[in-house]
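Notes continue from the previous slide.

Worked example: a multi-chain complex. Inputs as given:
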Amino acid sequence: MSIKLAPPVTEPATTPVAIRPASLTSPTAVTPEPADPAEVVFALQDFSCYYGSFRAVREINLEIERNRITAIIGPSGCGKSTLLRSFNRMNDLIPTARVDGRILYHGVDLYADGVDPVEVRRRIGMVFQKPNPFPKSIYDNVAFGPRVAGFRGDLAALVEESLRRAALWDEVKDKLKSPGTSLSGGQQQRLCIARAIAVEPDVILMDEPCSALDPIATLRIEELMKELREKYTIVIVTHNMQQAARASDTTVFLTMGEDRAGYLVESAPTEQLFTRPTNELTEQYITGRFG
Amino acid sequence: MTSVTRSAVEAGLHSGKRDWTGMVAALALLATLLLSLGILFVLLGDIFARALPVFAERGLDFLSSPLSARPEQAGVLQGIVGSIILTIFVVVLAMPIGIAAAVYLEEYAADNRLARLINTNIRNLAGVPAIVYGLLGLAVFVTTLGMGRSLLAGGLTLAILVLPIVVITTAEALRAVPQTIREAAFGVGATRSEVISGHVLPYAMPGILTGTVLTLARAFGETAPLIMVGAITGVFRNAPENVGELLQGPFTALPTMVFAWSKEVKDEFRALTAAAIIVLLVVILAVNAAAILLRNRYDRRW
């Protein structure tokens, strides 16, 4: 079981002050330690997120493990994207957003005082619902992240490597100077993936990355995710249950309560969740009876 | 619909009905367009007809002569120089300050009551009549700060006049940059200033340039506030020895000269007025054309 409900009790050993590495609060980049298959990347403890007085997700307890693809599914408006955007503090950009509880990232509370959201996002990259390449050249799209991270080295090689890993290099190697916006939708999304991995993140968050793509482009992205899993931890929000079933190792099912706040119903290895769900709501959802 | 036979479909598709209301509306709209264009062309034609003799007789001499009480010697040189220097004031003062203020309001300021109050006020300031800015310039720059009726006071007044418009057009251009672009840049670990300098400002630049260059044309055409702060409507002679003297000296501008000449008693000044209007129009058209070229050059799609 790669994801399990975290115990509701906070372990005393993981107080943020005691174990927070200096790297999260200082601008020096540190590459994560070698992968340990069972290592927990994210541990959510009673995590809630509010927009103003509205609670969008409620008291989530969840662990996300390293080098797995974790899919978050659930009906529209249940807070999947909000939850995902909490993992790299992207919700900080929304002035009314605030959180309660904790998200421990390798044991460090992401929302503790002094944690620099810029450093968080450098380690936890994101691919968005609609492909959003910068209106710059393909090269500059990929090179922007390393540049602001102060990358010293062969930038051209890094750009090539990132585009190769995003399975886009062969299609764009002759037109690196053309604008990223001139590519097709599927290519743009792979460009966004290349942009995300160019800063050597630890985790890649994907917010419905295929919702604007055709089935063939969708399959390419799913294949790509399986390759990227070797190196990264991937959390993907998807509307598409077949996609979760096809492409993920673990599936997390959220739904909405009476108060319209999203809460976690069940998280389990994907195969188990789709064949033997333990919760009735999960079963109703995956069989298409609601949502 | 009863039967779907070929003849029924044929008859149905050739209904013979015409969209009379639509045609009447289109004609009415065309008429309003022709009316406004017609008025414009009559005015322009009249001015061209009056101005032509001046350009035919005097040629470039009209452009290179200073003000004079004698119509056969009077020219627009001082007006062109004054207008250009006033425009430089606007470029150097109003644009950087206005763009910076807009960046702060749009990208940094929290969306609270104070920010909304400031935004509303800037919008209102943009709607304040120019003559009020003239009064402000007279009270603050000319009198209180003791600058006198100088080019400096005129330039500062015009800069303040267009400042709110620069802020508004810049803010609108910044708002037109999709939030997804900001998220993309934040998402790879850029700081707010890197997001703004690397993405938001460059992508908003065509809009900012178009908007602010158009405000330049506006500043170029303003008359009332300049007369308030003492643009010369008669004759003056100045031979400044340095920039300081130039800025503290008397001045005039093209629209002010148009205003002054139109009040002259001598009939010959009618033609001079028309000729000065042509010069003013040519300059403003050139500025607008530059704005369009800039916009096309930087045009981009998301």
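Summary box: Residues 71 and 266 of chain B are 8 Å apart (CA to CA). Chain B has a mean pLDDT of 88.
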